[in-house]
C-alpha cells in the first residue's frame, strides 16, 4: 500500500518558479502521469518525490509518514532515469543487485530477486553482459529491472521511453502497462508525450510553466479541458480554434466568426471575445454550402494512410481537419466548405483562456 | 602518396625529438677520447661498456634510482589520494562558496613553485625533515593541477549515475569507491604517470633539502657524475641512460592511458 500526498509542494530557484504550490494525492496502485512541455516543472516534481530535490515549501507524505526531508534511500521509492543511468562498469546482474547488496540481503535472496525480475523482463540471457553491450531497449529493461528488484512502494519514471525508436516505444509502452497491471505498484510517470499520457495514465496531471493546469482521468482531460492550453496539449492533431464572439438570441447561441455564423445549443452566455475550440476529428468537409458551414482554402494535405490531415485557411486563421481515408482528398488551393460534427464545441475566453462552456451545433 | 608524406614528416619529427637521447645512448658506448673529440663523433667505433661500470662505481646510481622511486611512489600515491577526494568534493558535493574555493584552488597553479620554495624549505627544516623521504615527498602531496584534471573528468560522468546510486542507498564514500574510482581509471592513470614522472625528474627541491648520498635522488646524482669526473661525457651519458630507463618504460606502458586521459572530455567514450 502506498499513497503519496503532496501538500502545497513548490520549488523555486533564484530567478524563477519551477513548481508553483499545489496539492495532489496519488492513490495506491495508480499510474499517474505528469505531462507538459519541457520546462513545465514535471521532472522537478518527480525529483522532489524522489528526494533528489528539496521542495522550497510544502510537505510530502508517503502513507501518512512525512518524508519531506527524508533521504532518497530511506523513502522506499525507486526511479527509472531518462538515460537509464546504468552503472557502466557493472554487468546486468550487478546493476540489478546493487541496491539489494547495499541493504545487506543474503546472496541467495539477491539471486532469487534478480532471477524473478530478469524472468519477468526477459533479461535472463543477458545477466553477464555489460550495459555497453546491450541495445537501447535492453538497457531500458535493465533500468526497469533495477527498480523492480527493490520491490519499492512507488516507481518513479522520468521519460523512460524517450530514447527508444518509435516502434520500440509503442511496444514498450504496452509492456509497461502490462507490468503495472501485474505489479499493481503505484507509478508516477513523467513524459512530454500526450499519447503516452493518454494511453498509460489512470490519471494525468498536466503542467505548464510550473503551474498545474488540470488533474483528471485521460478522457476527462480530452473531453473537458479547463483551458485552451489543456485543450491544445491533449489530442493529436490538437484542438483547432476560431476566434469570434457569442451572441445570445432568445434561447439560442450564435457563434459569429470571421464572415460566417454557427448556430449552437447548450448553456452559455453572450461574450464578445472568445475562441471556439473544435477537435479536428469533429470537422467535416462538404462541397456545397450548407447551414453552419464555412468556407476554407486548402493549404496542405497530409496523408498518413488511415487518415489525412487537411490544413486550411479560414479567413485569417488556420485550422486542421482530420478525415478518414479513403475519401477523395481535396487539392491544394481548392476552396471547400467545412462543417462541425455532432461532437462538443468548446468556448474559451480570450485573455484568461479559460473554458466558458461546452456546446454543440444546433442542427 | 599522402601517407608517404605523412610518415616522412612524422619520422623526421620523431628523429628531431629523439636525437639528443639517441646521441646520449651513442656517446655512452664510446670511449672517453671518442666522446671528447671535436667535431663530435655520432657513431661509436665499438661497443664500449666500461662507461657504465664507471658510472655505477662513481656514484651510487642504483641507490639514487631507488630513492627516486620511493619518493615518486609516495608523491604519486599522495596526489592520487588527495586529488581524487578533493575533485570528488568539487564535482559531486554541494557546499557554500564551492566555486570561489575552486577558483582559489586553481589560482595556486599560477604561483610558480620557485616562489614558495624558501618558505617550504623553512617549514621542512623546522620539522627536522631535511634529508628524509617525508621531506622530499610531503610538500607535493596536494596538487591543484591533479585536482583540476580529476574534477574535469568526474564531471563528465553522468550525473544520473550519482542520483541512481543515491536512490539505491549508496552513500558518498561508497559511491566514491565503487563508482567514481573504477569509472575514472583513464584520468587516474594520467595523474599517476604525470605525478610519477614529474617527481622523478625533480631537481631543485631534492638538491636543496638533501645533503647525503643516502637520500639523494637521480637528478642530483647525474649532476654529481659531471662534477666529480670533470667532463667525462661517456660516463655522464651512461648515467643518464640508466636513469632514463625506468621513465621510458613507464611512458611506453602508460602511453595509451596518458593520451586518453589528457583528451578525456573532448569526446565521450
TrEMBL record, chain A:
GO biological process, one term: carbohydrate transport
Species of the source: Propionispira arboris
Keywords: ATP-binding, Nucleotide-binding, Transport
UniProt GO molecular function: ABC-type transporter activity; ATP binding; ATP hydrolysis activity
Domain called ABC transporter: residue spans: 4-234
KW Nucleotide-binding (keyword) present: yes
CDD domains reported for this sequence: ABC_MalK_N
Transmembrane region(s): none
Keyword Nucleotide-binding: yes
Residues annotated as signal peptide: none
Name of the protein described by the UniProt record: Carbohydrate ABC transporter ATP-binding protein, CUT1 family
The organism's place on the tree of life at top rank: Bacteria
GO cellular component, one term: ATP-binding cassette (ABC) transporter complex, substrate-binding subunit-containing
UniProtKB/TrEMBL annotation, chain B:
UniProt protein name: Carbohydrate ABC transporter membrane protein 2, CUT1 family (TC 3.A.1.1.-)
InterPro entries: MetI-like (IPR000515), MetI-like_sf (IPR035906)
GO biological process: transmembrane transport
Species classification: Bacteria, Bacillati, Bacillota, Negativicutes, Selenomonadales
Recorded topology in the membrane: Multi-pass membrane protein
Keyword entries, A-Z: Cell membrane, Membrane, Transmembrane, Transmembrane helix, Transport
Alphabetized Gene3D superfamilies for the sequence: MetI-like
Any Pfam family hit: BPD_transp_1
Origin superkingdom: Bacteria
TM regions (residue ranges): 7-29, 69-93, 100-124, 136-154, 175-197, 231-253
Gene Ontology terms: cellular component: plasma membrane
Family affiliation: Belongs to the binding-protein-dependent transport system permease family.
Species of provenance: Propionispira arboris
Location(s), subcellular: Cell membrane
Chain ranges of the ABC transmembrane type-1 domain: 65-254
Amino acid at each position: 500500500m502506498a499513497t503519496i500526498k503532496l501538500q502545497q509542494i513548490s520549488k523555486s530557484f533564484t530567478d524563477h518558479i519551477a513548481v508553483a504550490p499545489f496539492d495532489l494525492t496519488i492513490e495506491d496502485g495508480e499510474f499517474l502521469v505528469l505531462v507538459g512541455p519541457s520546462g513545465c516543472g514535471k521532472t522537478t516534481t518527480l525529483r522532489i518525490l524522489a528526494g533528489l530535490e528539496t521542495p522550497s515549501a510544502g510537505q510530502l507524505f508517503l502513507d501518512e509518514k512525512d518524508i519531506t526531508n527524508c533521504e532518497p534511500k530511506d523513502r522506499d521509492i525507486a526511479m527509472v532515469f531518462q538515460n537509464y543511468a546504468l552503472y557502466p562498469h557493472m554487468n546486468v546482474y550487478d546493476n540489478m543487485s546493487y541496491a539489494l547488496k547495499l541493504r545487506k540481503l543474503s546472496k541467495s535472496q539477491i539471486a532469487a530477486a534478480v532471477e524473478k525480475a530478469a524472468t519477468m523482463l526477459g533479461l535472463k540471457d543477458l545477466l553477464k553482459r555489460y550495459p555497453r553491450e546491450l541495445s537501447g531497449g535492453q538497457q531500458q529493461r535493465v533500468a526497469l529491472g533495477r527498480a523492480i528488484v527493490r520491490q519499492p512502494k512507488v516507481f518513479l519514471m522520468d521519460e523512460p521511453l524517450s530514447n527508444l525508436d518509435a516502434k520500440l516505444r509503442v511496444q514498450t509502452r504496452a509492456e509497461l502497462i502490462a507490468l503495472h497491471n501485474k505489479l499493481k505498484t503505484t507509478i508516477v510517470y513523467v513524459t512530454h508525450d500526450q499519447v503516452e499520457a493518454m494511453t498509460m495514465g489512470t490519471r494525468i496531471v498536466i503542467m505548464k510553466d510550473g503551474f498545474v493546469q488540470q488533474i483528471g482521468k485521460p478522457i476527462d482531460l480530452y473531453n473537458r479541458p479547463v483551458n485552451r492550453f489543456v485543450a491544445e496539449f491533449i489530442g493529436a492533431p490538437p484542438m483547432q480554434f476560431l476566434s469570434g464572439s457569442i451572441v445570445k438570441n432568445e434561447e439560442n447561441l450564435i457563434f459569429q466568426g470571421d464572415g460566417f455564423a454557427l448556430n449552437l445549443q447548450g448553456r452559455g452566455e453572450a461574450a464578445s471575445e472568445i475562441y471556439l475550440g473544435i477537435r479536428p476529428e469533429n470537422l467535416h468537409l462538404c462541397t456545397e454550402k450548407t447551414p453552419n458551414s464555412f468556407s476554407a482554402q486548402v493549404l496542405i494535405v497530409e496523408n498518413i494512410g488511415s487518415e489525412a490531415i487537411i490544413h486550411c485557411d479560414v479567413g485569417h486563421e488556420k485550422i486542421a481537419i482530420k478525415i478518414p481515408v479513403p475519401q477523395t482528398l481535396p487539392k491544394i488551393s481548392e476552396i471547400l466548405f467545412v462543417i462541425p460534427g455532432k461532437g462538443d464545441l468548446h468556448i474559451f475566453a480570450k485573455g484568461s483562456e479559460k473554458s466558458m462552456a461546452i456546446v454543440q451545433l444546433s442542427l | 602518396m599522402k601517407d608517404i608524406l605523412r610518415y616522412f614528416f612524422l619520422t623526421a619529427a620523431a628523429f628531431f625529438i629523439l636525437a639528443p637521447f639517441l646521441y646520449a645512448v651513442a656517446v655512452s658506448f664510446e670511449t672517453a677520447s671518442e666522446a671528447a673529440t671535436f667535431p663530435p663523433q655520432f657513431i661509436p667505433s665499438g661497443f664500449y661498456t666500461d662507461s657504465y661500470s664507471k658510472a655505477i662505481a662513481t656514484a651510487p646510481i642504483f641507490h639514487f634510482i631507488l630513492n627516486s622511486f620511493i619518493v615518486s611512489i609516495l608523491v604519486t600515491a599522495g596526489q592520487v589520494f588527495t586529488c581524487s577526494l578533493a575533485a570528488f568534493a568539487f564535482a559531486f558535493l554541494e557546499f557554500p562558496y564551492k566555486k570561489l574555493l575552486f577558483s582559489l584552488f586553481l589560482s595556486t597553479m599560477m604561483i610558480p613553485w620557485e616562489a614558495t620554495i624558501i618558505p617550504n624549505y623553512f617549514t621542512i627544516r623546522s620539522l627536522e625533515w631535511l634529508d628524509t623521504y617525508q621531506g622530499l615527498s610531503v610538500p607535493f602531496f596536494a596538487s591543484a593541477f591533479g585536482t583540476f584534471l580529476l574534477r574535469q573528468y568526474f564531471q563528465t560522468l553522468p550525473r544520473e549515475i550519482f542520483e541512481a546510486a543515491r536512490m539505491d542507498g549508496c552513500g558518498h564514500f561508497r559511491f566514491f569507491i565503487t563508482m567514481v574510482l573504477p569509472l575514472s581509471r583513464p584520468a587516474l592513470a594520467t595523474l599517476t604517470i604525470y605525478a610519477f614522472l614529474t617527481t622523478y625528474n625533480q631537481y631543485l627541491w631534492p638538491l636543496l633539502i638533501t645533503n647525503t648520498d643516502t637520500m639523494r635522488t637521480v637528478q642530483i646524482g647525474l649532476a654529481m657524475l659531471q662534477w666529480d669526473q670533470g667532463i667525462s661525457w661517456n660516463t655522464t651519458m651512461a648515467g643518464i641512460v640508466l636513469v632514463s630507463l625506468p621513465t621510458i618504460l613507464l611512458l611506453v606502458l602508460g602511453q595509451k592511458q596518458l593520451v586518453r586521459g589528457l583528451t578525456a572530455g573532448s569526446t565521450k567514450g
